Amino acid sequence: KQILPGGLHLVGFKPATELRDCLQIRKSSFLYPEEELGKGSTCAFIALHQKMLELDQVAVVWAQLSASLPPRLAVLVAQEEEVDDVGQLVPPGMNLIYMPFAEDFRNTEEEVFAQRGAPPELADSEMVAAAQRVIQAVQLEDFNCRDVENPALQRHYVTLEALALDFDKDQALPEVQDYTLPDKEGMKRAAKVFENFKAEVFGAAHDQEEAEENMASQAKAQAGAKRKADSLSTSSQVVQEIDWNRHVDDGTLAKLTVDKLKAYCIANKVPTSSANKATLIERIIDHVRKQRV
Predict the structure, then answer these.
(1) H/E run at residue 83
(2) Is residue 9 within 8 Å of residue 62, measured between CB atoms?
């Protein structure tokens, strides 16, 4: 049954300073009045919007924007209009920010303790200082997401333009500048900072330990491949020692062990998954008879 009628239901108001970014659990929604749907909504919206900005308050609400969705705890945050000489930069309105319930919070320290049987290791002051140096080394100056174009959308536009202008198939399409890729040259300049951070957190011999772990993994993979090859060789040898045509004609396949039946299937690429002995025998009979045709 529906707990509340659809829409927003006011619970109360809280100071905006008590709203923490970490409590946002999903992307927010932007709300603005629609006079055609609700007469007088614009006037009420503007009054509430201006007063919330003036008092620096946020509204706590129950939000159910669709009858098929359960109600969520959320807050309304007033967004002030921003304009410059060219025009409007940020529109006025309300941001609906969805908040977590009590059950959504996790005690990560308790979870780590339960998994490891020991309290979690905390970073010391030197590790924190190393992390701060990394952050300072890769600072973005004058960054604005409005200046970053969607590379996938730009490639789509380039393709549409090529189709519209009937480009030659052999003609290369204009290259799209992808501004979302990391600055490799900038990262190289900060390589020493990254190395210091890695040594501080993982230890000076981390690279050597990682290389040894990779070598151990490769050796394990090679050993597995060798075992598989030996198994195939053994299976092939077993298959060659048995007269399968005679067993099929005499109906004596049931006298062979399951391992020998599977050896035949593996050597001849006959499926063995989810098969008991009777199923293996049926598949071998079908395979042998097909080979005779």
Answers:
(1) strand 82-83
(2) yes
pTM over 0.70: no
Q: For residues 52 and 78, is the Cβ–Cβ distance under 8 A?
A: yes
What is the distance between the alpha carbons of residues 236 and 259, in angstroms, rounded to a whole number? Answer: 12
> What is the structure's pLDDT at 230?
66
Pairwise pLDDT comparison (207 vs 87), residue with the higher score: 87
How far apart, in whole angstroms, are the C-alpha atoms of residue 52 and residue 10? 14
Residue 19, helix vs strand vs coil: coil
Average pLDDT value for residue range 105-116: 72
In contact, 277 and 283? CB cutoff 8 Å = no
Long-range CB contact pairs, 88-96, < 8 A, 24+: 91/32, 92/32, 92/49, 93/30, 93/31, 93/32, 93/49, 94/30, 94/31, 94/32, 94/45, 94/49, 95/28, 95/29, 95/30, 95/31, 96/8, 96/28, 96/29, 96/30, 96/31, 96/61, 96/63
- Determine the Cα–Cα distance for residues 109 and 121; give it in Å rounded to an integer: 10
What single string gives the DSSP state of each residue in 118-146? SPPPPP-HHHHHHHHHHHHHTPPTT--GG
What does DSSP assign to residue 255?
A: G
Residues 219-242 pLDDT 10s: 788 777 777 666 666 667 777 778
Contact 99, 39 (CB under 8 A): no
pLDDT at 176 over 60: yes
Percent of residues, the chain, with pLDDT higher than 70: 91
- How many Å apart are CA 87 and CA 122, to the nearest integer? 49
| pLDDT (tens digit per residue) in 13-42 | 999 998 887 788 888 889 888 888 778 888
Report CA 15 to chain centroid distance, whole Å.
34
Residue 166 to residues 118, 156, 175: CA-CA distances in angstroms? 67, 15, 17
Q: Is the dihedral of CA 163, 166, 172, 177 positive or negative?
A: negative
